[in-house]
Amino acid sequence: MASSNFFLLTALIAFGLNTLGISVTTNSSPRFVFPRGLIHFQFNPNPYNPTVAIAALSSQNPSAITITNAVFGSKPPIYDDVLAKAFQVDKKTAIAAEPSPLQDFCVADLNSAVRVNGFACKNPTNVSADDFFKAAMLDKPRDTTVNKVGSNITLINVMQIPGLNTLGISIVRVDYAPLGLNPPHTHPRATEIFTVLEGTLYVGFVTSNPDNKLFSKVLNKGDVFVFPKGLIHFQFNLDPHKSAVATSALSSQNPGIITIANTVFRSNPPISDDILAKAFQVDKKIIDLLQA
Ligand SMILES: *[C@@H]1O[C@H](CO)[C@@H](O)[C@H](O)[C@H]1NC(C)=O
Ligand SMILES: *[C@@H]1O[C@H](CO)[C@@H](O)[C@H](O)[C@H]1NC(C)=O
Fold first, then answer.
1. Is the peptide bond before 141 cis (omega within 30 degrees of 0)?
2. pTM to 2 decimal places
3. For this UniProt entry, what is the primary localization, expressed as one broad class (predicted)?
4. Among 208, 198, 122, which residue's Cα sits nearest to residue 165?
5. Which ligand lies nearest the alpha carbon of 124?
6. Distance CA 258, CA 162 (A)
7. Cβ count near 37 (within 10 Å)
8. pLDDT per position as a tens digit, 180-221
9. Topology of the domain comprising 68-100+134-256
10. Burial of 251 (0-12, 13-18, 19+ CB in 10 A)
């Protein structure tokens, strides 16, 4: 597809990299860091000269999820209903583990000036049951008419319950309007275990390059499904008349949500339409429509 080529050296090729958590892929001196799990790109703006770069990646097997391949080129394809709704167009048209706690708890001191990975701990003598509690009313239906895709996400993470700090877990309630969609997205820091409480949902996730294999299933009330950490996934309410509800546990105090349509077509400032037109192999007019 696009004019570029990657050589990735991983533990599958160089056994010595196993357990070292680093691998190598290749500008002379300028350095730039792409944080783990975030969507990124490189583009050679020179129309005449090729360019080359080397990158080190903090995993023995970092995997690549190319958005165009995973979203539009999965095998089998994701339903065009799901993609049309996610990208708000007509039908015609990576990843981390949390460090283990080294004490019983480390309740987040959300006001601390200390910057650490996560939050600094409150003095344990000052911790109370309320630090582990939130009257979140997760039993109550949410409004699914605000959002254009017909879903509403209520995430209870460390910002709502400071006691979750360092514990590597959080919970979410998702409400779906009839034909509502939770559009293709990833959680860069969490695996998700998903349970349908009410309704029928078509769900799926797509593996990293080169296979981009879609694993999908129709789930009914009571069914449980797993979305592996970092992989692009979605849920769609197949019922045109009834709403649906699900809940998930996520293996991070702050799983992060990267919604593909928003990160690719609605970034601030926008990614150049030259880059997106080449990546998706479509006319710039289509990109301008998606960015509108
Ligand atoms: C405990 O909390 C109170 C009220 O927020 C605060 O004034 C006090 O400094 C805290 N003590 C410790 C040891 O952190
Ligand atoms: C989600 O539902 C709540 C409560 O019903 C509502 O206040 C909020 O605006 C909704 N948010 C979105 C993004 O739909």
1. no
2. 0.78
3. secreted
4. 122
5. 1
6. 23
7. 19
8. 999 999 999 999 999 999 999 999 999 999 999 999 999 999
9. Jelly Rolls (2.60.120)
10. middle
- pLDDT, one tens digit per residue, over 99-125 is 788 999 999 999 999 999 999 999 999
> What is the 123 CA–ligand 1 centroid distance (Å)?
8
Nearest CA to ligand 1 atom 6: 126
Counting ligands in written order, the one closest to the CA of 147 is 2
How many other CB atoms sit within 10 Å of the CB of residue 23? 21
Mutate to test the pocket of ligand 1, among 111, 123, 125, 128 (most ligand atoms within 8 A of CB): 123
The CB of 126 under 6 Å from ligand 1? The reply is: yes
Q: Which residues is 175 bridged to in the sheet?
A: 152, 245
Place of tokens 């730039």: 32
Residues of the chain with CATH 2.60.120.10: 68-100+134-256
- Our CA angle for 61, 65, 67, nearest 5°, is 170
Of 147, 152, 154, the residue with max ligand 2 atoms within 8 A of its CB, to mutate for a pocket test, comes to: 152
Task: Specify whether the backbone of 172 is left (phi greater than 0), alpha (psi in -120 to 50) or beta.
Answer: beta
